[in-house]
Amino acid sequence: MVSIDFIPLDYDSFDFEERNYVKIIGRTPSGKRVCLIDEYGSYFWAILKSGISEKKIKELQEKIGKITIKDGPRNSNVIKTHLENKKFLGKEVKAIKIIISNYKDTQRFSEKLKLQEIDKIRELDVNYITRYIIEKQLIPSYWYKLEGEEISNSSEFGGISNNLDCDIVIKAEKITKIENEKQFIPKVLAFDLETDDFEIGKGKILMISLVSEGFKKVLTCKKIPSMPDYVEHYNDEADMLEAFIKYFKKISPDILTGYFSDSFDLPYLKSRCEKLKIKLNIGIDNSIPKFSGGVNPKGRISGITHIDLYQFIETAYSQYLQSETLGLGDVANELLGEKKVVHEFKRSEKMKEEEWRNFFAYNLQDAVLTYKLFMKAWSDMVEFSKLMQEPLFNISRDGMSANVEHYIIHNLYKYNEIAERKPLHDEISQRRSREKYEGAFVLQPIPKLYENIVMFDFTSYWPSIISTFNLSRSTFLGEKQAKDSKSKNALEVDTGKKKYFFLKEKGFFPQMLEEVIKLRKQYKSEYKLHPSPILKARSNAFKLIANASYGYQGFFGARYYCPEASASATAISRKFIKEVIEKAGKSGFKAIYSDTDSICLEMSKKTNSQALEFLKKINSELPGIMELELEDFYKRGIWVTTRKGEFGAKKKYALINHEGKMKIRGFETVRRDWCNLARELQNQVLEKILKEGNEKSALELTKQLIKLIKERKIERKQIIIRTQLKKPLSEYKAITPHVTIARKMLAEGMPVNQGMLIEYYIAESDNKKALKRERAFLPDETKPYDIDYYLKNQVLPAVENIFQVFNINVNDLIEKQTKNQKSLSEF
DNA sequence: GCTTTCGCTGTACC
DNA sequence: ACTGGTACAGCGAAAGC
What we know:
The chain is α+β, with helices and mostly antiparallel strands. The protein contains 22 helices and 31 strands. The strands form 7 sheets. Strands 19-24-25-20-26-27-28 form a 7-stranded antiparallel β-sheet. It has a 6-stranded mixed β-sheet with strand order 14-13-12-11-15-18, sandwiched between helices. The chain binds a DNA duplex through α11, α15, α16, β27 and α20.
């Protein structure tokens, strides 16, 4: 018997003599690599119809107990059955727990269970590892004391330990959670490839960068006269790949990370190794990386957690990032404040020595930035895996709906609930075609420059509504029937279209949410008292889960899909925000604007403390855990009309607080599909107006810029328009400028991928009626820009509505200037 | 042949 | 396909006259 402390990192399973075993890789506090092996038989539930006699149930259990699978790839049997009183969607049920010898036969067993007494079979689709984590409570990223028999270098399980790059292999007997808040720092290896063709299977690998603690190298098969000292040269690609494998094994990391490495670097590496007949045996059992998932491949390396950092950044950070793309360069710049080395891609045979030198630096830096970003994201990943209770491999790739669902599944046992199944194929298409339900309320603003504004918003609006009003799949009682009067124990929600009933007795989902909100509040205040990246990450993970839970209930792929709950939540949201608007009016504040959970009020002659008193009054009248809070006081704010100029535009405003900090929403300034010229001018115009309270100097600035545009003094980079290619080029029905440019790029042999930002500018044309797409050119083309287009379609639209607030028509300004200029040049 | 309408597309807000 | 609905705006082609 041995006993060690360890932290589980990578979860896997294997079969031995037709039984399932869990294989978990972790580390001890002193850095030894541990492999835990545990026998574990999976199970599922047969939920019985009500009113079946005990005798019948006994007979049924016996019958089930004898089921065997012999026609499959292995012999499987039922190990044990167990009758239990459980809950399913909140209702009491009797269910038989069926423990089987091999989870891979789950489906085969269920097919033999189409029996009269059985109402439903459930939890066939709960992942084996997930189930193990729930049952043994061996949650990733926490510390445990592991007791068991050491089987390192033994013949157990066919000598599995002999081929394993581990310090100790233990057959688990007892696992106990220990209190250890010590943050585990993993050994991380970041890598990046440069190739001579972007398409996997076509090109060759030119260089590989590797970055780990105290380790920075570029491996290459290209030789230039004087190599930088971090570059190691190999005779050919095969030697270089062998060297990669050698270094990988020497470093023996816990985590391999890359940026887009699931879809590019790792499959590329695998493909080249296959072609060159090199065994990419980087798994701790000497296995090669395996890919699953088809369209969105996921690369798995046995015993080593491969993390494609891009995927985690996309789900966990993208909503907070200002970056206009989620590329490594933009993200590293924003999160680390480090700029990427600029490198112009050329065909490798055309590159000169200096360019190769730069290419090496570029390659190294990609791995350096990936490494640093990973370290920065580590706390968040750990907190995610602790909250969702799923391994890091999954956490780093899952979207928010999967996160919400994992949170639910891992906590169901507290409510004695059996999990609902995932929707089947037909169900999904049915759900996807459902009508949209009405969403949140947005108040139409009156265009104006306002002074002295206060903004309030509801804290965690959606989750607080769902929790307070108990809106969920298991508490939904159905639509109101005309004759229905049995609503004593139910809450009625009038969505305007339909009336829905929900049970008053708290359901598990609203209860879980309430817990999440409570803990989020607790960690947030703890963080404010003792700021640390861990507490910040923890508070943030809870916040994200809470916010995604509303969308989850309306999502077609959800186990606990309930669009009626979503529709009810929005109906309730509309009711409360409108009430606040009305009460504000009665208390002498005037609502300028409101969107979903926020409200901007004109203070008029009211003081700040009067505004806070009003807030207090509102809160005293709010039910449950609903709460309105102060967002900020603002010195000025501006709302404008829509382009047509008929009414005030929603989702578009700019504010400045008393410290001079601006908050700009919806304006072209914050839209990446407008050129920088227009965006920067608009930003400056807004700043001047908000700071000075009038339009005078902003107008001057605009006039100056118009002059510069006409004199062709604008730099090319200022007039570039960027639009994302959101789908494969072939799927476009409309031929827009960016599609035209993308086709042109493709024809010129440039890489064009779904998701990339297409850049172009608009050039002059003799044909005045030419379409925009006919005047669109690549950034490096030489045609002079179209003055008229940039004035009338970029700069003017960006500031026109702002000056309109002051009754100034900027269009006249351009026309006048144009006339003057023409008359000058004509004479 | 010109103007208006409408579907497609992308982006942002919450 | 991988959380929800609301809103704005530009482009290009179809529809309307």
